[in-house]
Target: Moesin/ezrin/radixin homolog 1
Amino acid sequence: MRESLRRLASDEGTSMVGLRRTGTGRVRVELFNGEHITIDIERKASGADLLDKVCDTLDILEKDFFGLLHAQRGDPRVWVDLGRRLSKTFRNEPWDVRLAVKFYPPEPSELYDDITRYQLSLAVRRDLMEGRLICSQITYAVLASYVLQAELGDKQGAVSTSTLCEHNAIPFHVLNERQQDNIEQLYAKHRGQTPADAELNYLENAKRLPLYGAEVHKAKDSEDVDINIAVSAAGITVLRDGVIMNRFPWTKILKISYNKRSYTLRLRPSEFDEFETHLTFKLPSSTASKRLWRCSVEHHMFFRREIPVKVERITGFPRLGSRRLSCRRTLRQMRSEIHAPALLPA
Model:
């Protein structure tokens, strides 16, 4: 057995050497359901080329909702720069990435493609399982019942704990006997729904959660109190101990800037205010501050702009690395292109 393992390792090493000689890199991609696929791609290819290849493999048409995550300096959730060469982003092969939804559509029913909707439901399921998205006990039960309907069809008998865990229907730590009874009762009410119907109903309930589609960053407020800043399609939300303290829709925000560890929002004056408001938050590092700024600008650009625009350097602020953004098309562009006559089925 030791000899066979040694032979396998030798064969894989030989394969990787062969790939490097041909200018090709090997990427291991983790999908939403935990499975992995392997993709060979030119080392000089960009992050966008890799994302396109992953989406093509999964038959995803609405690619711009998605992105790729990789680990960097202990942070497991760093977005792959779509405009940068892969050989400059990664070092050791195989390159490990994780498929993720970067821009969560606020209205899942408006998605053009059923496969995109299915992948989105898997992404929300993973967010719940990994604790990035939390909800009430009854909402956990409602969502789990739709997962069972989508995966198993009409209810036939009792639902076991192992079945719920196998389909990632609900986090194990919130599952108890009473919760399981609630899930079974709700599941029985979905009889007749197709998998597509159940997935859409799942997303229609998930989209109402306060942190649906939000990318959350740790920070401190002006009083040095720990907070979380959540960026989503609707705007920027400030939370303390899981409680929403402030919501700032994109229409309220005039400018977003960062300087070293400081992240600043310039807010439009309300009808009762005479002057603009400046809110400054402290991030753990300058890198964290830049990532939050970049996340905020990319979300605003994707959901609010007609087309992507170049972000200029702010006068008086030091240049902290590249200000290149990973936003190829806006939501409006994507919708117009998806519904163009050339792309519609005959």
